[in-house]
Predict the 3D structure of the following.
Amino acid sequence: MPLSRCPADSRIPVLVIFAPTACGKTALAEELFGGSSLFRFKGQAEVISADSQAVYKGLDIGTAKPSASQRAEIPYHLIDTASPQEQFSLGHFMEAADRLCGEIWSRKNIPVVLGGTGFYIRNFLLGAPAAPESRPEIRSQIQNRLASAGREALYAELEIVDPASAKKISPHDGYRICRALEVFYSCGTPLSSFALPSKLRSRYSFCTLVLHRSIEELRLRISSRVEQMFAQGLEQEVERLRKNGITEDCPAMKAIGYREFFIEGLSPAQIKERIKTDSCRYARKQCAFMRGIPGAVSADADDKEKIREIVLRFFSSWLL
């Protein structure tokens, strides 16, 4: 039984699944929609990746991208679409996700926005804040200062002029640091003062699932995943990227699992432990980032029966 637009509702139905790192998002998508799934919507979904690092080509092991066989069963979008040297911004994600949702729904498939980059998902659900347009001259000045003074100096400056934004932005995220400073120096108002809308975007009908596990369980899963990444050749992957001209300053190398290799004086064993620590810290931030999303339903990642019931109930009105 195919899906079809409900005559009384012109919105596009979108399943949004958010979960912290190592929670089992990809495995859940495969269980719901993959070739061996027993679920009602087997083979009827296409995934839009909301992972700010999986978008980069060549970053395979450290980002835990879906395998080739998994992507053969379920179409994945926004994976391997950007060069590691280019910045893939929120604007790029929003534009691509909006276009893809329309295209997927036109094929009578379910658009599934799946990932752990809360910055992407939160803005996709609510819409981006109405921050001022970029001013090329100010952006150029800040970029020059980034090159001369370094990311740490600009982040310290941001902590002074816009401490609320600094708390939300990683010290390693040069793009967002520069953007926040650009807004402040363009209009004299902190970026944090431009609040997200409080209502969901009207062009979509959302079913938003926020998956969770205990912090201790996540810690064990993260440790196991990092061990597996090193066994799969993460060190060799980083070395290949370096040989191909990818440096510490490239946007892709700000990702956990890659930036640690550029810390001087760390042995491979210490790098591994640092990745585990950084990943656990990031997972805790992810859990906090999605609080307060209107209509979002929280579910234990292992409660597959509840998850299937929520998805089936939501899409029942689009069944022919």
